[in-house]
Automatic annotation (TrEMBL):
It comes from the Bacteria. Belongs to the MraZ family. This is Transcriptional regulator MraZ. GO terms for cellular component: cytoplasm; nucleoid. The gene is mraZ.
Length: 143
């Protein structure tokens, strides 16, 4: 299970250090793609295959389904870490997520999210007041 929050810098070439805990979970290669909320998602190969199979089941006739599948797959790349534990974030994905000098990697159960530090701090400021009401809604759903 992927969990935790790690702050790192992104170097001039667009490389980010993947925390050792995450490296052991992801394996030798992993998938990175555009995520929701202006971040990037990183998946293990097996989790990506599971998700891909679910997305393939979406109805091709629905415009929303086509748009989501395009969005998700168009940015996807298979990556590996170098000997120093760094991976290169493709330029298009860096631009999409607005990654600058400081980044945050967070474990979210079955995926890792890669955020620009400022965007992550802004998101936390916005979501924190709502967490109690979100928890109540989830409790109503049996969670």
């Amino acid at each position: 299970m992927l969990m935790g929050e790690y702050m790192h810098s992104i170097d001039a070439k667009g490389r980010v250090i993947l925390p050792a805990d995450f490296r052991s979970e992801l394996g030798e290669s992993f998938i990175i793609t555009k995520g929701l909320d202006n971040c990037l998602f990183l998946y293990t190969t097996s989790e990506w295959e599971n998700l891909s199979n679910k997305l393939k089941q979406l109805p091709l006739a629905k415009a929303e389904a086509r748009a989501f599948v395009r969005f998700f797959f168009s940015g996807a790349r298979q990556l590996e870490c170098d000997k120093q534990g760094r991976f290169l974030v493709p330029a298009t994905l860096r631009a999409y997520a607005g990654l600058q000098k400081e980044v945050v990697l967070i474990g979210v159960s079955s995926r890792i999210e890669l955020w620009g530090k400022e965007e992550w701090l802004k998101y936390n400021e916005e979501i924190t007041p709502s967490v109690s009401s979100i928890a109540e809604t989830l409790a109503d759903l049996g969670i």
